[in-house]
TrEMBL record:
Bias (Low complexity): 134-155
InterPro entries: DUF5682, LolB
A UniProt-annotated Pfam family: DUF5682
Stretches the record annotates as Disordered: 123-157, 748-767
Originating organism: Streptomyces anandii
Name the UniProt record assigns to this protein: DUF5682 family protein
Biased composition, class Basic and acidic residues, residue ranges: 123-133
């Protein structure tokens, strides 16, 4: 080590070798590897939580593939966790692998995660208040601190937050810190030649910044650095001076600074602490990107991984990758395109004064040469290559809660591998494998592990079909660990969680929704508890709105139960009893409502109507004909003046759609609702209830109803017109453009003359009679026969004279 120190310009006894890095920097990673090869230290100290020391050997196992992350979570506080991500091009990962290959101890020396997670609690309050934003780490990289699930930025006091990379880039005349870093580090071959020179330069720059800005607004870094100094001292006592430290460049001046042990320990006195567990979890390149929400991230992890892995000619190899991707998307990209793009990228770098083409030059070359100036395919290149969907792997020997192991077993059995990229999964529930996949995904959703989200199916709409949108995010590993408190298997944990949620539910609709989830997830042991709570809540809840919200989920459960083979007899009885209570309570509840309450009640009526329609197909012993009773309720609603117009109009429309009343009856009710004695606002609300939600085609095909609406609208007083216009616009703007166009044409032409049902008049354009004049219409038939070449009876060819007359007529017409 003494020779290494002299080569670094520090001389014997200068202390441990400090290797300042940029986290997730491929240039820093290469330089660290070169420096460790030259120095051959006896121990490698790495910025990171010391609780992870026992996990270091796992990095050498075959099943460990970066990107990965160290995960710490508070055992007693679900929702409180933090990540320390590592990519294959991260200097810390390179240092760990070097130590394992050379049988050298590797230890983490940052502040323990127990304190870091406790700081989160102080910053964000209770676990339920977590926001999911990352904790900002120390400069320059911002990556030294973990990514916290719910952590927020540390308070900065009176300091000013400093981004040292941005400060150095600005001093060098750059407006982009990433571009500056590429030019001075990535493209200068950091680690080539003298392995220590790059670190001396960075340390000098960071020393100047620390003198100017102090802690840079990151006051907690002072505490972290005190802990790191104590760990470095302990390592020096154990191993002598042969100690290498890999840490963020911002910390190196602080670690070099002389401070007493007592002063450092005083900074650590009284720190809050929580009980933590730690393990390795898979990470993704997308989560390394800043756009993914990781405050320690980089803009282009895929590009950095390429720079680290490319042995030579990185630009040529990169543009070849881009060409391959575009060819997969059926774009015509030849070898000539690649050659020309390389030339253009190199020319742009020379014009911009850069040592080698960077990401901006290669991107500009791809846009101009391979994408014909379009940014659309360029967005694909950024998504797939510049960022990428690389998902790391961890070995099975990594510590995990029993629930995680059971989930991994189910994923293998059901052939449902976690993937970082989003994909759609179509399930046919009639097959055992797909049914098992559906149950697993629903159970995980109940546990708060949102691996899959239900999506609208593009195929069959039957209940035996399900479509899921799957995407595995690293933080789901936290959710699985937290869900382990409910049980050791997915089935047991979901059952216990459903039972607890039922007992703690605050609204009746929550319980019915939970019953639906139990059926979808296949939790027969939880269903009795949920049903008991549901029956108790339904018996005590007198709010018709709550009852109406609860019924649809129950009915859906009955329908799902058929295809999933679940016994739903208990649900059927509860659903029927709930429907009967709604039938009794709904008419009184609809009286004297304001506009907002009336609109909400209309939604309840719609939901109950759909639910009762499905219940009509289900045997309901002892409950009579539920659809017929519901139609009676709608009849009562349609005729009561105390019921808001939007509800009355909707009731009439539902009865008409079900064939319970004739169109003449519907037109008569509309005529009464739109009579001159009805206030314009009430009449507009009735129209909204009647024709809203797809009623446009009804008006297109029944011009009598359209004429009633048209006559009423033209008769609205000017002073009331501005009040009813928003209601009407909201109603008619929901129609398809073709429907609106047809209605406009009908109104412009005017409806047919003649009396409508019940003597409703409908004036037509001048010159048209009240009815069809058949005598005048028949007079044109001979000419039509001649034009069409038909006989007098309209079935055969006409005579030669008739044909000739037809030809003459055609000539005249021509």
């Amino acid at each position: 080590m003494a020779g290494a120190e002299q080569a670094a310009g520090r001389g014997p006894g200068a202390g441990p070798l400090l290797l300042e890095v940029r986290h997730h920097g491929p240039g820093s990673a290469r330089a660290v590897r070169a420096a460790l090869d030259a120095a051959r230290p006896r121990v490698v100290l790495i910025e990171g939580p010391p609780e992870a020391d026992a996990l270091v050997p796992l990095a050498a196992e075959e099943g460990m593939r970066p990107p990965v992350a160290l995960l710490a979570h508070a055992v007693d506080e679900p929702g409180r966790s933090a990540f320390w991500p590592l990519a294959g091009f991260s200097p810390e990962w390179v240092a760990i692998r070097w130590a394992l290959r050379h049988d050298v101890p590797a230890r983490f020396i940052d502040l323990p995660a127990a304190h870091t997670l406790a700081w989160q609690r102080e910053d964000t309050g209770t676990p339920e208040e977590h926001t999911g934003t990352p904790e900002e780490g120390s400069a320059p990289e911002g990556e030294g601190a973990p990514e916290g699930e719910g952590a927020q930025a540390a308070p900065v006091g009176d300091g000013v937050r400093v981004d040292p990379l941005a400060a150095l880039a600005e001093a060098a005349g750059y407006d982009d810190p990433e571009r500056w870093w590429e030019d001075v580090v990535e493209h200068r071959g950091m680690g080539d030649g003298d392995p220590y020179a790059p670190f001396l330069v960075l340390e000098e720059a960071m020393g100047a910044l620390r003198e100017t800005y102090g802690s840079g607004g990151h006051d907690r870094d002072l505490v972290r650095e005190a802990y790191m100094r104590l760990q470095v001292r302990a390592a020096v006592r154990e191993f002598g001076e042969d100690v290498a430290v890999v840490c963020g460049a911002w910390h190196v001046p602080a670690l070099r600074r002389k401070a007493t042990v007592a002063a450092d320990r005083s900074l650590l006195k009284g720190l809050p602490k929580v009980r933590t567990d730690m393990t390795w979890v898979p990470w993704t390149h997308r989560r390394l990107a800043r756009s993914g929400g990781y405050g320690a991230g980089i803009d282009s992890p895929g590009w950095y991984a390429h720079l680290f892995a490319a042995p030579d000619r990185p630009v040529e190899r990169w543009l070849t990758k881009v060409a391959g991707l575009l060819r997969e998307e059926d774009r015509i990209v030849s070898s000539a395109h690649v050659i020309e793009a390389v030339r253009l990228a190199e020319t742009l770098a020379a014009m911009r004064g850069r040592p080698l083409p960077g990401l901006s030059e290669t991107t500009d070359a791809v846009r101009a040469v391979m994408c014909e100036g379009s940014d659309v395919p360029l967005a694909l290149v950024r998504d797939r290559l510049v960022v990428g969907d690389v998902l790391g792997e961890v070995p099975e020997s990594a510590p995990a809660v029993p629930l995680q192991r059971d989930l991994a077993r189910l994923q293998r059995r059901l052939r449902l591998k976690p993937e970082a990229s989003e994909r759609e999964l179509e399930l046919d529930l009639r097959g055992e494998t797909d049914a098992g996949r559906s149950r697993l995904l629903h159970r995980l959703r109940l546990l708060g592990v949102g691996w899959g989200e239900p999506a609208a199916s593009r195929g069959s709409t039957g209940t035996f079909r399900e479509t899921w949108r799957l995407r595995w995010e690293p933080e789901l590993s936290v959710r699985v660990a937290e869900a382990g408190v409910w049980g050791t298997t997915v089935l047991a944990a979901a059952t216990a969680k459903a039972e607890a949620d039922a007992v703690g539910a605050g609204a009746l609709a929550e319980v019915t929704g939970l019953a639906e989830q139990c059926l979808l997830a296949g939790l027969p042991d939880a269903l009795p508890v949920v049903m008991r709570v549901l029956a108790d809540r339904a018996a005590l809840d007198a709010d018709v709105g709550h009852l109406a919200q609860a019924l649809p989920a129950l009915v859906r459960s009955l329908r799902y139960g058929d295809v999933r083979g679940t016994d739903t007899a208990a649900l059927a009885g509860v659903a029927a009893g709930l429907a009967e209570r709604i039938f009794v309570a709904l008419p009184p509840a609809c009286a004297v409502l304001d506009a907002d309450a009336a609109e909400e009640m209309r939604r309840h009526v719609n939901a109950v109507h759909t639910a009762v329609g499905l219940l009509g197909d289900t045997p309901m012993a002892g409950h009579g004909d539920l659809p017929a009773r519901w139609h009676g309720v709608l009849g009562v609603l349609s005729g009561r003046d105390t019921v808001p117009g939007v509800v009355r109009g909707r009731a009439v429309r539902l009865l008409l759609d079900d064939g319970e009343i004739e169109q003449e009856r519907a037109a008569r009710l509309m005529g009464l609702a739109l009579s001159p004695g009805t206030p314009p606002a009430d009449a507009a609300a009735w129209i909204e209830g009647f024709v809203g939600g797809g009623g446009g085609m009804l008006l297109v095909h029944d011009e009598r109803l359209l004429a009633l609406v048209d006559d009423w609208l033209t008769g609205v007083p000017a002073e009331a017109f501005t009040d009813v216009l928003p209601l009407l616009r909201r109603t008619f703007s929901a129609y398809e453009p073709g429907v609106r166009r047809s209605l406009g044409e009908l109104v412009r032409r005017g409806p047919r003359q003649g009396g409508g049902p019940a003597g409703v008049p409908a004036a037509g354009p001048p010159g048209f009679g009240a009815d069809l004049d058949r005598e005048r219409a028949d007079a044109v038939l001979p000419v039509l026969r001649l034009l069409l070449g038909l006989g007098p009876d309209g079935t055969g060819a006409g005579t030669a004279v008739e044909k000739r007359s037809g030809e003459e007529l055609a000539a005249v017409a021509g």
